[in-house]
Structure formats: structure tokens, C-alpha cells
Amino acid sequence: MRVVLLGTGGYHPSEERHTACIMLPEAGLVLDAGTGAFRIPQHLATRELDVFLSHAHLDHVVGLTYLLAPLALKQLDAVRVHATDVVLKALREHLFSAPLFPVMPAFDLRPLTGSSVELAGLRVRWQVLAGHPGSSMAYRIESTAGPAKSLAYVTDTVADGTYREFVRDADVLIHECYFPDALEEWAVKTGHSTTSKVLELARAANVGRLVLVHVDPRSSGPDPLGLAGVQQVFTRVEVARDGLEIDF
């Protein structure tokens, strides 16, 4: 699987990172649609997209509006948006309300039912996360054809271990880490994760590689999450930047 990280920051875009958007081009699969979604057209490898949303906060959904152009220009034939009923209702009533965005794109809005869905050669599973206002959804993508590979995506939650089994043994875990350890109090207040706790979870779940995203946009520099002081907890870790590509 090839994964392209189009947006790796949280809350609002910065000079270094746009907000949440992860794409598997050859599968036509997108996880969240923050401001990084403006980059989707340059990575298209299919005529259809399946977009899975973690929750309805603007930094994860505003980029859906950017897909109007590739649909209108016939770069895409179809876009299916998968999310909970609550999230889909929020999109219809708020993001695509006429005063805010007068042209509703021709999306196929699909509520999540059951615990998984089969796509071409892939199985997408989900699990509800706690701790963040309004809750969020974690996703796990597993290959069903060829070598067994798995990718887990966890964003906007506290790294409390309640989903450890859901991400266990994933080849790659893409996990939010908004704050360094020194800002633990703010993490608790806002329902986000801190560096050491995410690394401890990755170690306990025996994941192959940890990629940290949803970084506080106020932070910058080579080590915005204080990895240097805690990397011994889990060494196969990196802080993502927009444009990072992962092949596994």
C-alpha cells in the first residue's frame, strides 16, 4: 500500500502543515478531509474516491468543499463519503448549508453500519474513540488480497489504551499527537494526546511503525513534540510533515 500524508496538522493550517488528510491513491481511499484535501487532485489514481471521516470538526471536513471542482471538471466520476449519521447530518445542515456553500457536490453520503466495509482488495474497519468533544472514529485498513498489510489511523482522542487491541500489530499506526508532554494539562482539557502516552501505546500494541500527526499548528521546528527526550520508549517513530509518502 502507498500512503500519502496530505495534511498532518491540527486545528488550522500553518506554514508547515495543512490539516488532516491522508490518501491511499491507488485504492482511491481518503481518511479525513481537512485543508490538506486541496492536494487530492494531484494524486488521483482512480476515477472514484471513498472518503472516511473521523468526526465533523472543521479541520477534518472543510476540504470536502474542495472536491466540487474535480467532480465538475470530470476528474472524478464519484465521491462516496462514509461517516456516522451524526457527522453526515452535520455536513448537510451546516458545512453545505446554502449561506455557507451554495452548491452541494454530488456526493454519495453513506452512514457507517456494522463494523467494517469491503473495498477493492481492502477491508476498512472502525471503532469509536472517547475523550474528544463529540467523540471520533478510528479506522483500520487491511489488505484482503496479496501480502497481509495493515494501517491504523487514530486522531482526536486521548491515548488511553481503550483501543489498543484495535491497532495491535498494525504495520503502520498514524496517530494524533497534538501536544508535547509538558502540555499534558491542555491535552486533558481538549481531548488530545501527548507524546509519551502515544509512544507507550504503540509499544504496548506492538505496531511496526508510528507516524505522529495532528500537530499543534503553533509548534514548529525539527522537534515540536519533544521526541528527543522520550524516543527510547518507542524508537520506530517520526513526526510527519505534509507530503510524506509511506510504502509498506
UniProtKB/TrEMBL annotation:
<dbReference type="InterPro" id="IPR036866">
    <property type="entry name" value="RibonucZ/Hydroxyglut_hydro"/>
</dbReference>
<keyword id="KW-0378">Hydrolase</keyword>
<feature type="domain" description="Metallo-beta-lactamase">
    <location>
        <begin position="31"/>
        <end position="214"/>
    </location>
</feature>
<dbReference type="Pfam" id="PF12706">
    <property type="entry name" value="Lactamase_B_2"/>
</dbReference>
<dbReference type="InterPro" id="IPR001279">
    <property type="entry name" value="Metallo-B-lactamas"/>
</dbReference>
<dbReference type="GO" id="GO:0042781">
    <property type="term" value="F:3'-tRNA processing endoribonuclease activity"/>
</dbReference>
<protein>
    <submittedName>
        <fullName>Ribonuclease BN</fullName>
        <ecNumber>3.1.-.-</ecNumber>
    </submittedName>
</protein>
